[in-house]
Amino acid sequence: MIELNRNRKTTKQELIYVGAYFLFLLVFWSISRLILSPALEKTLPNTSLSYALCEAILKGVIWIVPVYVILKLQKLNPISFLKLNSNIMKGISFGLLLGIAFLVINIVKTKNFNIHITYSDFINTFLVVGIIEEIAFRGYIMQKFKLYVGFIGSNIITSLMFAMIHIPISINNHNIDPLYFVQVGILSLIFGYFFEETDSLICPIVIHSLWDLSMILTQIS
Q1: pLDDT in 10s for each residue of the chain, 221 residues
Q2: CA-CA distance, 92 to 111, in Å (whole number)?
Q3: In which domain, by residue range, is 47 found?
Q4: Which residues 6+ apart lie within 8 Å of 94 measured at CB?
């Protein structure tokens, strides 16, 4: 009975951490997208390197620092828990295979190729976003939910949360399209599936980054 109560207490604490993190993320990411980014654009050209670096640092502080702090408080090794050092070659191989397939399909489908890439496109959309978002959602949130609801349940819950976190981005871009959120949710399920299959966060990071690169190159919003 004592062990059962201890396990329930641990489960409750874990879910509180995850819920608090997502609430923090939703609030401060909304502030960042809807208030701070527009203010930054009035100070720096949104095509400049300075703007891109400020955006990258801001997102890293909001998304990654809390995950690192939570895992350290739980006496977990962030790199190992997030599976950033697990099955690296397998993760890269599967990630490149599917990511390049997405890239080619989107270019062929749109018959468009954009060569005018800004610093923000390259640094934030291609290099940084995949790493930061996968650490937060697949590496942390999905793995924590998986402990209690299994892979399928955790992938679905994480994908719904992943779609929700894109609401501030959609509002900022003046593009509230339900199909956009459906696409984001489906992509999240794919990222989650290959994370589970490869047991490596490198895989969804590579797929995510190459998908975003295809959005830049084909100018798909």
Answers
A1: 444 344 555 677 888 999 999 999 999 999 999 999 989 989 999 889 999 999 999 999 999 999 999 999 999 999 999 999 999 999 999 999 999 999 999 888 887 777 788 899 999 999 999 999 999 999 999 999 999 999 999 999 999 999 999 998 888 776 778 888 999 999 999 999 999 999 999 999 999 999 999 989 887 55
A2: 27
A3: 2-218
A4: 194, 197, 198, 203
Enter the DSSP assignment of 121. Answer: I
Distances, alpha carbon 40 to alpha carbons 59, 107, 155, in Å: 13, 32, 35
Sequence-ordered list of residues with C-beta below 8 angstroms from that of 8, at least 6 positions apart, any chain? none
Residue with tokens 């290959």: 194
- How far apart (Å, rounded) are the C-alpha atoms in residues 163 and 149? 19
Sequence length of the chain is: 221
Residue 124: DSSP 8-state: I
> Across the chain, which distance is largest between two alpha carbons, in Å?
64
Nearest to residue 143, comparing CAs of 97, 201, 209? 201
Query: What is the rounded distance in angstroms from the CA atom of residue 186 to the CA atom of residue 144?
Result: 20
Structural domains counted in the chain: 1
What is the Cα–Cα distance from 43 to 33, expressed in whole angstroms?
15
In the chain, the amino acid numbered 135 is I
Token code pair at residue 95: 């990630």
DSSP-H helix ranges across 111-174: 119-120, 129-134, 143-165, 167-172
The tokens of 31 are what? 């502030």
